[in-house]
Design goal:
Strand content: 15-25%
Helix content: 25-40%
Order of helices and strands: HHEHHEHEEHEEEEHEEHEEEEHEHEHEEE
Shape: globular
Number of helices: 11
Distance between the termini: 63 Å
């Protein structure tokens, strides 16, 4: 009796890594691979469900129920979950509040599905309401690396709720709203591997609860605080207390190297920091210039990016700034800020790299470059100069502009204006194309 030999499909010999590369090349059409054979189904599913997006809890539940025909295998493949609507922002940059409706029965079902995503590494929830069950599932994800909650309302958490230890290294808690018990502080404290934290300042709402005043974090390296005018008190006494609480919050993070303050801040003074150093670890500051009144409390500051549009007179006394270790400076300036910028560079005697972002509508290269020359009048030791403006500087720039900048900054070696680059060679400034090192 003749027997028919069944040959193995050539697809079975192709490594799984190659199939994943093919899926990336095919994009959305890679779904067809799931129907080809048993060998291509696994990489096709892995690619299809690697990152999923749902506009609300109901969509997540509906999709997960539809996937039930393949059991729990699909949910285990999800590595990135984006849940919620896109945040709309007003002209002042403030995000609108959560517009999602809390539905308890859907949260109960979604809790089971999210818990089944055991390989989830990135979770972004935006503009919706979630319950305690979903929050419990989030804190129990053992491979979660990035957690982002923006304009999210958390409801139904009771006082007896126990917070699990979080493994996420990058956490965003922006404009979160807690309708019952606020566990934001506990979430931060429970993140034992925290590297970057982005959070909102809520005035007295950030004050620690009784018995938790002494907690500290020794792993976070980057702290970004969103601050808006409405979060601060309008009375003088309360505002003074809130400024001190703001200082206490920063001090809790003992290892931060970068501090970024985004938005509006009241004017601080040296007394707000008391007699203590604010931080010995902060080397990079991004935020408003008047926070530099506390520069003596940041002894190891080496890089500054000022977020103000222009240098307003009276915001800070340059002579009182203690920024001798600063070597990299980025400032948003106007053409008329020549005197104030010049005074600031006179105090920062070790700045080697300077970036000037011109905020006004002056589009004449001559006006901008002449203004820059006046800003450098005290001959700071700058080696690299970056200039950005609305004008793309597509025309030829005369050599005398470069020579004038070199005259006030003898150490100047590299100038970048917009996307164009020049370096000096034997007395001439030669334009070059920067190579992409990526």
């Amino acid at each position: 009796m003749n027997t028919v030999s069944i040959k193995e499909s050539p697809a079975m010999t192709v490594p799984i890594e190659n199939w994943l590369t093919i899926c990336e090349m095919l994009g959305e059409t890679s779904t067809a691979l799931a129907q080809v054979c048993r060998r291509t189904r696994a990489p096709a599913y892995e690619f299809m469900f690697k990152a999923v997006v749902f506009k609300d809890i109901g969509d997540l539940v509906e999709a997960a129920n539809a996937w039930s025909d393949v059991g729990g295998r699909v949910l285990a493949l999800v590595k990135e979950l984006n849940l919620g609507v896109q945040i709309e922002r007003r002209q002042d940059g403030v995000a609108l509040h959560c517009n999602g409706r809390y539905e308890a029965h859907l949260n109960e079902i979604a809790f089971i599905h999210i818990r089944s995503m055991r390989h989830l590494t990135r979770l972004n929830i935006t503009g919706i309401a979630i319950g305690s069950k979903i929050f419990s599932a989030i804190t129990g994800l053992q491979q979660l690396c990035v957690l982002s909650l923006e304009n999210v309302c958390v409801v139904g958490i009771l006082e007896k709720y126990e917070l699990d230890v979080m493994v996420a290294r990058h956490v965003r808690l922006v404009n979160t709203c807690w309708h019952t018990l606020n566990l934001e502080e506990g979430l931060i404290r429970g993140s034992k591997n925290l590297k970057t934290l982005e959070m909102s300042w809520r005035g007295g709402g950030n004050k620690p609860r009784t018995g938790s005043e002494n907690w500290q974090n020794a792993t976070c390296e980057s702290l970004e605080i969103h601050s808006r005018r409405g979060a601060w008190s309008t009375t003088r006494e309360n505002l003074q207390n809130e400024r001190r609480e703001f200082m206490a919050l920063i001090r809790r993070f003992k290892a931060i190297k970068k501090l970024h303050i985004r938005g509006w801040l009241p004017k601080f003074n040296d007394a707000d920091a008391g007699h203590q150093t604010l931080s010995d670890s902060i080397a990079y500051f991004v935020g408003p210039v008047h926070f530099m009144k506390l520069s003596r409390r940041l002894p190891n500051l080496g890089r500054i990016t000022l977020s103000d549009n222009g240098l307003n007179r009276g915001e800070v006394n340059e002579v009182e700034m203690q920024v001798q270790k600063v070597t990299i400076l980025e400032v948003n300036v106007y053409v008329d800020d020549k005197e104030r910028m010049c005074m600031m560079l006179a105090v920062m005697a070790n700045v080697h790299q300077l970036k000037l972002n011109f905020s006004d509508d002056v589009n004449e290269p001559d006006d901008i470059l002449n203004s820059v020359r006046d800003m450098l009048d005290y001959s700071p030791p700058i080696k690299r100069l970056f200039i950005t403006a609305d004008d793309p500087f597509v025309t030829e720039i005369p050599q005398e502009h470069f020579r004038a900048l070199k005259a006030v900054c003898p150490g100047l070696e590299d100038i970048r204006i917009g996307q164009r680059c020049w370096r000096t060679k034997q007395g001439l400034w030669i334009e070059y194309i920067e190579r992409d090192t990526n």
